[in-house]
Structures are given as C-alpha cells and as structure tokens.
Design brief:
Elements (H helix, E strand, L loop, with lengths): L1 H31 L9 H15 L7 E3 L8 H10 L4 H26 L5 H12 L2 H4 L3 H19 L6 H10 L3 H18 L9 H16 L18 H12 L6 E2 L5 E2 H39 L4 H16 L3 E2 L2 E2 L1 H16 L5 H24 L12 E2 L9 E2 L7 H7 L12 E3 H6 L2
C-alpha cells in the first residue's frame, strides 16, 4: 500500500513538472524575440494597453474615447496598461503572456486536484490544447483568462469552499474577461446552489449582475457600437456546411494549430510536408474522439448516480448542446458557440479519468506530438514578422479551414506603436472606441 501511494505521488509530481515545464519553455520563446509574439488579436490588445497607459499618464490619444460604461474584454487592456506604467510596452506585453500561461497552468492543475483526476496525459494535453491551442494563436487573451478563472471557480466549488465574498470577487473578474466564461461560471454557481440547497450564495452574484446590466444599458444608450463590430460569417445556419463547421469547431479544441495566410494555404504544410501534416491531423482527431468518449461516460455516471459532480456535468453538457446550435456570429461576437464549446470541453477534460493504460498512453503520445509542434511553431513562426508575407503550401479541399489561425492579421499594430501613430482603426468591443465611431452612434 505504501509503495502504491508513493507511485501515485510520483505520478502527480511528474504531471506537475511536465505542465509547468512547458510554460518554462514558452517563456524562452517569448523573451528571445525583440517584439512580442504575433498572435492574432494580441497586437491590437497591446495597442489598447498603450492607449490606457497614455490616458493614465494624462495625455490621452485624441482619436479615441474611453467608454463611459464597464465592458467585458477589458482585463488584458487594464493589465497591460498598468504594466506599461512600470516598464516598456514590449516587455509588458511579453510579461502579460507569461502571466496568462502560468495562470492557466495553475487553474487547470487546481481543477484536476479538486476532481481527484490528476493524470500524466493531461500534463501534455492541457498546454497543447488549452494553453497554446487555436484560441491562443488567435490572440483571444481575455477569453483565455476568463476560461482559466472559470476553471478555478469550478475547483473551489468541487472542494466545497465556503466564503461570503470569494465567489463574488471571482465573478467580477470573470465579467471583465469575457461573457462566455462568465456565463459558464454563473450557471455553475446556480446549479451548485440548487444541488446543495445553498441559495444564500446567490447574493454574491449581485455585483457582477449589476455590472452586466450597466454594460448592456450603456451599449444601448450609446448606439450599441459593441454589436456593430463587423463580424460577418459565410456559414449559413442549419445547412450541411454549418454541421461540418460545428464538427470542425470541436476538433479545433484539441491542439493542432495550422498557421495560414488564407483558407487555401498552410504554412504548417509547407514546413513539415504532407506526411507529417497527416500525422498531426490524425493525432488531433484521436484526442478529440478519446476525450469525447471519456466525457460522455463521466457525464452519464454523474447524472445517473447523482454524484458530487452532477452540477458540473449538467453545465458542461448544457453548454456543449447550446454551442452546437449557436450561429457563427451573434451580437458582435465571432463564433460564440466555439467559445462555449471550448470552455465546456476543456473543463470536462480536466475532471475526467482515463482508467485504461491504452487510453492514457494514446492520449499522452498524441498530445506530446502536438505540443512539440506547437512550441516549435511559436518559436519559428509567431516570433518572426517576416513570415507574415510568406506563402504557404496549397491545402487539399478536404482540410481547408481546419484549425486555421490567421495570426498575422494585426501584426502591424506593433509598427504603429513604435512609430507613435496612434490613430488606427480598432474593434469597438473593449474599453476604447474610435471618437468618430462614437459620434456616429450617438
């Protein structure tokens, strides 16, 4: 028995080491380049951080206004702006990425511990799919922070932590990250209170709900610029293409990253060739299938036997089903169903257990291959502005659009910051709004 306990403890320590070792490797990738990594929307978030820094220093940029109401999608702007008061903007942007990755590793680890489901394969799959997957490459930093905080929120509920204020504070933090993980945490909280008959906990939802009401009222009173972000989808609702889009959305949750300049080319395919590309694709599909089966079994057990995790699996299954029905654009939010699905399945993955050695080894091998490739791509591609103009290898029609990340679409915002040209067009979904756009929406 003592030997078995020691083996289990060694496995947990090895899993902990692997998880945070990947974060350490990432730190080397981040700080070796002159500018911050080129990751989808992240250059624009850095640009927003510079706007906030200038505002806090008393010389705000005249082309923009600060929204007179609280908004989600603002944590990264606030964090970057505060750091830029203390250091240069490139260093602040790199440090913020490290904070995000370390927070993600910590919250995922705490969720596993709370569910008593620490397993070695997750130490490879969590950095592969969650920390460095497609949302990270798209630069969805606020969404990522929100997902990690939702995992921590779930871990505290599974432990039965009692507090008169902690959940309320976390819900406030979740509100300023992204509405999808905030909504997931809110539903979890309600279901937990229902399962345990602890309705007094609901008082802690009031501050964040008041902020939400203020936010939506502010949107309407100021022309709803947030809902006019220009998100357009070519996927018609309810069609066969829509069904394929949803399958692709689920597959993209599990780690394969395909940097691309457009839908018909792939930088990854050009770098590794057809055979390696096919191996990566099969590894991703194997993970997706295996985790889906494990989650289905865990959900069935929790709901049938009314286990302690019942409230959690009701939320996960509910979010997953709604995600399948969500359109690809809604109220200015691009692919809300994809975000809902990612929060749900990543949380579910952290709490399931793979009892068979074949399951564990398959998941570990597939995740390990994808993790090595993702870290290599971050080092070789995301840190090199020259790759922005590069062409990729031609993609077969059958895999066009799969795991694509158009990571270079806003990389020139870094150049605007360097040159001091603070008059770029920005998306109206965060703290700042173009003054011209604000006047037009009055």
């Amino acid at each position: 028995m003592r030997e078995q306990i020691n083996v289990d403890e060694l496995r947990k320590r090895a899993a902990f080491f692997l998880l945070f070792f990947s974060a350490a490797v990432f730190s080397v990738v981040v700080f070796r380049s002159v500018l911050p990594l080129i990751l989808g929307d992240y250059p624009e978030w850095v640009y927003h951080g510079v706007l906030l820094r200038d505002l806090l220093q008393g010389h705000s940029d005249t082309a923009y206004i600060f929204k007179p109401y609280p908004v989600p999608n603002s944590l990264t702007t606030a964090g970057l702006g505060a750091l830029m008061l203390l250091m240069s903007w490139p260093l602040a942007a790199k440090l913020w990425l490290m904070v995000e990755v370390l927070l993600g590793a910590y919250c995922a680890w705490e969720l596993q511990r709370s569910a008593k489901a620490v397993e070695g394969w997750k130490a490879l799959l969590i950095p592969t799919a969650v920390l460095f997957g497609t949302p990270f490459w798209f630069g969805f930093m606020n969404f990522m922070f929100g997902t990690y905080l939702a995992m921590l929120f779930c871990a505290l509920l599974l432990r039965g932590v009692q507090s008169r204020w902690l959940y309320g504070v976390l819900l406030l933090l979740l509100f300023v990250t992204h509405m999808v993980p905030y909504g997931f945490a809110l539903i979890l909280f309600v279901l937990y209170a229902w399962q345990h008959g602890r309705w007094r906990l609901m008082w802690q939802t009031v501050p964040s709900l008041l902020l939400s009401g203020w936010y939506f009222a502010g949107r309407l009173l100021h022309g709803d610029a947030d809902g006019k972000a220009g998100m357009v989808s070519s996927v018609a609702y309810g069609t066969v293409r829509f069904a394929v889009f949803k399958v692709n959305t689920y597959l993209k949750c599990w780690g394969m990253v395909n940097p691309a300049p457009n839908e018909e080319q792939s930088i990854l395919l050009r770098m590794v060739g057809d055979k390696v590309f096919a191996i990566l694709l099969l590894a991703n599909m194997a993970i997706a299938l295996a985790v889906f089966v494990l989650m289905a079994l865990a959900a069935r057990k929790a709901l049938k036997e009314r286990t302690e995790q019942r409230f959690l699996w009701i939320a996960i299954v509910g979010f997953f089903v709604v995600a399948l029905a969500m359109p690809s654009e809604l109220a200015g939010l691009s692919d809300p169903g994809g975000r809902m699905m990612q929060v749900a399945v990543w949380t579910g993955m952290c709490v399931v257990a793979a009892k068979g050695i074949v399951w564990r080894r398959t998941l570990a091998c597939c995740a390990g291959v994808l993790l090595v490739m993702n870290l290599y791509l971050l080092s070789a591609v995301a840190s090199d502005p020259k790759i922005a103009g590069a062409t990729g290898g031609p993609l077969p029609a059958s895999v066009r659009g799969f795991a694509h990340v158009y990571y270079t679409r806003r990389w020139d915002y870094y150049g605007s910051i360097v040159e001091g040209k603070m008059d770029r067009k920005i998306y109206p979904t965060a703290m700042f709004l173009s003054r011209r756009e604000f006047e037009e929406n009055k």
